[in-house]
Amino acid sequence: MIALMDEQRVAGRRSSRRPLPEDRLEDLIRAAAAVFSRRGYRRTQMAEVAREMGVSPGNVYNYVEGKDALFYLVLRRGFGERPGEEPPELPVTGASVEVTANWVARRLDFVSDFPELEAAFARTHPSDPRAEVEAVVGELYDVLIRVRLGVDMIERSIEDVPELARIFAGVRRELFARYERYLRQRAAAGAIRVEHPQAVAHLIVELCSWAARRRPHDPDATQISGAVARQAVCRFAAKALLSPPGSEAHEQTATQTVTEAATMRMPS
Length: 268
Prior knowledge:
The protein is built from 12 helices and no strands. By secondary structure, the protein is mainly α. It folds into 2 domains: about 1-105, Homeodomain-like (Arc Repressor Mutant, subunit A, Orthogonal Bundle); about 115-265, Tetracycline Repressor, domain 2 (Orthogonal Bundle). The N and C termini lie far apart (about 50 Å). The relative contact order is 0.10.
């Protein structure tokens, strides 16, 4: 309750300072995200964000009162607001690291962002196991695409902000656990074959993480479009989980999927 009241105060405070146009707010978000992701929270300076944005440092303070507030604002934009939640009032003030950590903990709730996975948990047996696996894995890819800005910032700032580090570690554990639960549930129903659910859950999450977050920065993957990466990950998971062990299809899954990703290129 105290954390929620803190966030409401941050969202509700007003100032006589006059914000810049809305299109420059997006420029600020992109510039700050780039600097935070590159240098981490502690080493980021407001002047460096202003240089990245191409404005004087004073202009940045039309939107936020300082670095804490900027970090809070960019993370909220990076993760997106929860359903029914309004963005913070500009300029953002009073946003401590504790307020930011509390908001991140409430935002990453695993329910609103994963309707396909929630629906799968509620089903006893899927009518189309292949379609369900591809939907569940594709949803994970889509979520990681949406939140990659926020995740990149937090990963680079883990040593600087212990409060966020603890929350983020818990989120990762819960993410792995939920996909392991899904695999065990479907294996018990006979819908899929999986020998090591915990290991496979980690592989699925890490594969989606590479495709959604690290692929765009991989110089050797520049010709692989987002659509191709998503399709390859979904098909790889479905073929691996639904092909009987020892079958020719099972043994060819990795080779075939990698070949698909390599040959289906982004239009020039």
